[in-house]
Design a protein that fits this description.
This protein has 3 domains: 113 residues, Roll (SH3 type barrels); 175 residues, no CATH class; 149 residues, Jelly Rolls (Sandwich). The chain has 6 helices and 33 strands. By secondary structure, the chain is mostly beta strands. A hairpin with a 2-residue loop joins β12 and β13. The strands form 6 sheets. Strands 4-3-2-1-5-21-17-18-19-20 form a 10-stranded antiparallel β-sheet. The chain has an 8-stranded antiparallel β-sheet with strand order 7-6-11-16-12-13-14-15.
């Protein structure tokens, strides 16, 4: 008993020490859709500890989906606007336990005010790795000699050594975060590996020359590139990019742990992660180790292991009818017109009870959807209800079946709250069917929404 007490005391002391050293406020999302807001106290391959106003919450790694930095990007909006996600304040918490205490919001606001904005240096390059990672680095500090690249990430003060065998491409002429996260059409068109050798792309947009050969060295001023045995000294200022040939380096780990993104656009497909003294060290699946301050981390996405979206699977039936009858009242009819207009938008926002959801489908009228599951799942979770834009003028009856077994029936009205459903699936289930029917003796439109349907293995 004494040993267990001492061990627990040591753990709490360690977590408290980390919490005092770390002032990075984050949202941590688990695989049940719950969010925790607070300060990262500790993080490793097994769990994350969050300090929520002095109380520690620990989430095991197998339940961890995403860690998102709540601070704004430290880069000017002129550079990063197109690549930025909405600030947390523009999105409503996803569940009842997501309410953010006023004191924590104030601390986040104060931290945001202290962020020093900076733009990219005049010269930035992007190193694309063969394991899918990419590094945003200072061009002035980049060289390549004898098969070894030396670079300095925008978040680092020390050089990072990268074997040439780890690199798949080098992008020059990178001006801002938009160029990092969304390569130009010219680059996507030209960045095609050539089985015969490396590719050197020289010139400016609209006027490119592409050479096939062997990359020799890269200095501060020159790219040495061998073509048919002749070494061409090409000025670096004229180089648009390099696409490298060769077998990828052996992977240190075949299954990634997470995708880690820095504010600068650096993206690591990582197999190992560790937080020490407010610095996050991670290793890519090919074995490259990188360290950066925690507050430079924009997001760590662990993925929803063992969880899939119902919408990702084949829809084998898709039947809809008109959502209203001839005696539908005028006001609901106007709302339906708004709905049909919003359906044409590429990214229609789905709002249920003030909560925003990334994925959902709105059924209208007498509807029947059928999804084929490629493997067996144990449970289905979703949020069902009437979208805020149709309230209170909508009503519907929802029924969900697994194979031929009815899992549940719900009567949904526009004046009632959305609800979460958790359904156990029968063994070896391969079909999920969703049916909607008009509400009995109602002249309201038959409209309902199913948001964020997740299947659990």
């Amino acid at each position: 008993m004494l040993t267990r007490f001492l061990l627990l005391s040591f753990l709490l002391f360690t977590v408290s020490t980390f919490a005092r050293a770390t002032e990075t406020y984050v949202e941590v999302l688990d695989n049940e859709g719950n969010s925790v807001f607070g300060t990262v106290a500790a993080l490793d391959q097994t769990q994350i500890a969050i300090d929520v106003q002095g109380e520690f919450q620990i989430i095991p790694l197998e339940k961890l989906v995403k860690i998102r930095n709540l601070a704004p990007s430290p880069y000017d909006s002129s550079s990063a606007a197109a690549g930025q996600r909405p600030e947390p304040a523009t999105r409503t918490a996803r569940s009842a336990n997501d309410r953010r205490p006023a004191a924590l919001l104030e601390r986040i606001r104060q931290a945001n005010e202290q962020v020093v904005k900076k733009t990219f240096p005049d010269s930035v390059i992007v190193l694309e790795l063969k394991d899918g990672s990419q590094l945003t680095a200072s061009a002035s500090a980049f060289t390549l000699t004898q098969g070894q690249a030396a670079c300095r990430l925008l978040e680092q003060t020390e050089d990072l050594a990268i074997p040439l065998s780890h690199l798949s491409a080098i992008r020059f002429a990178v001006r801002n975060l938009i160029d990092v996260t969304n390569p130009s059409a010219d680059w996507l068109r030209l960045a095609i590996p050539n089985a015969e050798g490396d590719r050197l792309v020289v010139g400016n947009p609209g006027s490119f020359d592409v050479y096939t050969g062997i990359l020799q060295d890269i200095s501060a001023e020159t790219v040495s590139f061998s073509v048919d045995g002749e070494v061409l000294p090409v000025p670096r200022r004229r180089v648009f990019g390099l696409v490298l040939h060769g077998e990828p380096a052996p992977l240190a780990h075949t299954s990634p742990l997470a995708t880690l993104t820095l504010w600068s656009g650096t993206r690591g497909i990582v197999s190992d992660i560790q937080l020490v003294d407010n610095k996050l060290t991670w290793q890519t699946v090919s074995g490259l180790a990188v360290t950066a301050p925690l507050d430079w981390v924009s997001e760590i996405d662990f993925g929803e292991r063992g969880i899939s979206s119902l919408f990702d699977f084949e829809r084998t039936r898709n039947e809809f009818s008109l959502p209203f009858t001839s005696d539908t009242a005028a006001e609901p009819f106007k709302l339906l017109q708004t709905y049909y207009e919003s359906r044409t938008k590429l990214f229609r926002e789905i709002i249920l009870d003030g909560t925003a959801y990334d994925r959902g489908i709105t059924l209208q009228g007498r509807s029947s959807l059928e999804y084929h599951l490629p493997k067996s799942f144990t449970a289905l979770k979703a949020v069902i209800g009437i979208e805020d834009q149709f309230r209170p003028y909508a009503a519907s009856v929802l029924q969900i079946l697994a194979d031929s077994q009815v899992l549940g029936t719900w009567e949904l009205r526009g004046d009632t709250a959305a609800q979460q459903i958790h359904l156990n699936l029968p063994q070896n289930c391969r079909l999920v069917t969703i049916l909607s029917e008009p509400f009995p003796q109602s002249n309201y439109p038959t409209v309902l929404t199913i948001a964020d349907p997740k299947l659990f293995e």
